[in-house]
Amino acid sequence: MTDPGSSASAPPAPTTLGELRDSGATFRPVKAEIRANLLARLGAGEPTLPGIVGFEDTVVPEVERALIAGHDLVLLGERGQGKTRLIRTLVGLLDEWTPVLPGSELNEHPLNPISVWAHRQIAEHGDATPVGWLHRSDRFGEKLATPDTSVGDLIGDVDPIKVAAGRTLGDPETVHYGLVPRTNRGIFSVNELPDLAERIQVALLNVLEERDIQIRGYRVRLPLDLLLVASANPEDYTNRGRIITPLKDRFGAEVRTHYPIELADEIRLLHQEAHTSWLGAQGDGHLGAPIIPEHLAEIVARFARLVRESNHVDQRSGVSARFAIAGLETIAASAVRRAAVAGETRPVARVVDLPSVVPASRGKVEFADAGADPDDERELEILEHLLRQATAQTFRARCAGLDLTGLQEHFTGGETVESGELVPAAALLGQLGTIPKLAELLGRLGVPEGEQSAEQAAAAVEFALEGLYLTRRLAKDTDGGRTVYGA
Fold first, then answer.
1. Are 206 and 213 in contact, with CB atoms under 8 Å apart?
2. How far is it, in rounded angstroms, from Cα 9 to Cα 6?
3. pTM
4. What angle do CA 266, 269, 275 make, to 5 degrees?
5. Given this model, what pLDDT does residue 169 score?
6. I want to staple 335 with a disulfide (CB 3.0 to 4.6 A). Which of 206, 287, 347, 352 is the partner?
């Protein structure tokens, strides 16, 4: 998601209530504001939820329909499907700036005050009432549902200090507002909604339907203006799960999310979300940002998909997109480590970096038949097998029909080529001499002609050697961080 506050323009000019009225400004509820901005983007052919990958033809249209209808919505999906990211992207559909009464705990619009305090301010100052401007990035609130979440956290509670100051319990100004009222005129998100205790879920009923709140047995009439969005796991969001039926009934729309359907979307998501460029940032000596060849990103994407499909993995928990993202970042880190040891100036990831993904990602997978022993080596074997499968699939997809007999002939006399996680590109290429059809191999792997460095060539050749091994055309021996191809 692009941060809505990253390139904020200057706020509008009006600074008093009179100036605001003279400018022709009107009050518009949040849902009407979102609807108008959404329809404007649709009409202009612009992305409505930029940065959301793989949902363009499935989830996004459902969300758009819910927002146009003015519905509060709940996103249902397994972990790591981008629910929270999608919710935060909705902030971009708010107006960039909106007028507020400075000092209001409820972000009240000067033309639509709702609290006793706001009415008093306007009665006292009239058209001279100060007006401030709130950026859309400050109009979003969220709460991760936890067992210790209280009604006071979400809705509010009586402030004993204000009561001690002489105000009566029935005075609305004795209330210390919770997160939901403080997000008035914005978007509020409850993540993992079923994890809220049932009595806390009940507190949200009035917010969703009557748009008022109840605190300590008396009702505070506050016509809250907000869009409420929640996320949940489908397994928990059932009548037999941890969600009360009346609360389900209050949401206008339920939208099912999913993992990327197409391999290309999985790879796009990896490139978008993996934070690898900072590994070569200034301050890291002579190292540049690591390069992740396209074929390695494809292997990691295929690996994640194979793990999700494996019958050894608990399908109810899913395999998060963070599994693949962390894997790609680990590969980049392995390349940077090799470059630092070997003195290479531009780290390029290679097949030899792939094994580092398995131990790093093991904790992100819940196995269906996991034993009591947390050190069960069978889990590692399953992941290693699936990683080899992903590598073989990528080799077949990328190098089908490519003549690699010239590379194979290097080994006909019993020669070997040694590689490893700390073997530099020059040392690897020096063992092979002239490599037939190298330019064609690099082209198949998507390396542009102007970027065909020795490090890129080493990454391509090592991938070809691994592919020949996985298709049973070349022997291989591995011992720790040392790999030997050949007899």
1. yes
2. 10
3. 0.86
4. 130
5. 52
6. 347
Comparing CA positions, the residue from 473, 441, 469, 468 lying closest to residue 457 is 441
* The total number of residues written for the chain in this structure: 487
Q: Answer whether 286's CB lies under 8 Å from 344's CB.
A: no
Q: What's CA 88's distance to the chain center, in Å? A: 10
Q: Which amino acid is at 331?
A: I
Alpha helix (H) residue ranges in 131-262: 151-154, 160-164, 179-182, 198-203, 205-208, 245-250
Mean pLDDT by runs of 10 across the 487 residues of the chain is 58 92 94 97 95 93 97 93 94 96 94 91 95 96 88 79 60 77 94 88 83 66 89 79 84 94 94 77 62 95 94 85 93 92 88 93 81 67 94 95 90 90 92 89 86 88 95 90 86
CB atoms < 10 A from the CB of 130, how many? Answer: 14
Q: Give the integer Cα–Cα distance in Å for 328 and 295.
A: 12
Q: Token digits for 452?
A: 């065909």
Which structure tokens are listed for 340?
Answer: 């630092």
Phi then psi for residue 230, to 5 deg, are -130, 160
In angstroms, the CA 345 to CA 340 distance is 8
Both tokens of 25, joined, read 């400004």
Q: How far apart are the first and last CA of the chain?
A: 50
Cβ 462 vs Cβ 425: under 8 Å? no
- Alpha helices for 275-370 (secondary structure H): 294-309, 321-342, 357-361
Q: Can you tell me the distance from the alpha carbon of 5 to that of 1, in angstroms, rounded to the nearest whole number? A: 11
Look up residue 16 and give its DSSP letter.
B
Answer positive or negative: Cα dihedral of 310, 316, 321, 326: negative
Cα(132)–Cα(109) distance, rounded to whole angstroms? 10
Quick one: how many helices (H) and strands (E) in the chain? Answer: 20, 14
Strands (E), 123-281: 132-135, 140-144, 156-158, 175-177, 186-191, 213-215, 218-220, 226-232, 253-256
pLDDT of residue 160: 66
Would you state the structure tokens that stand for residue 383, as one six-digit string?
Answer: 């992941």
Radius of gyration of the chain (CA): 29
Contact predicate 441/464, CB 8 Å: yes
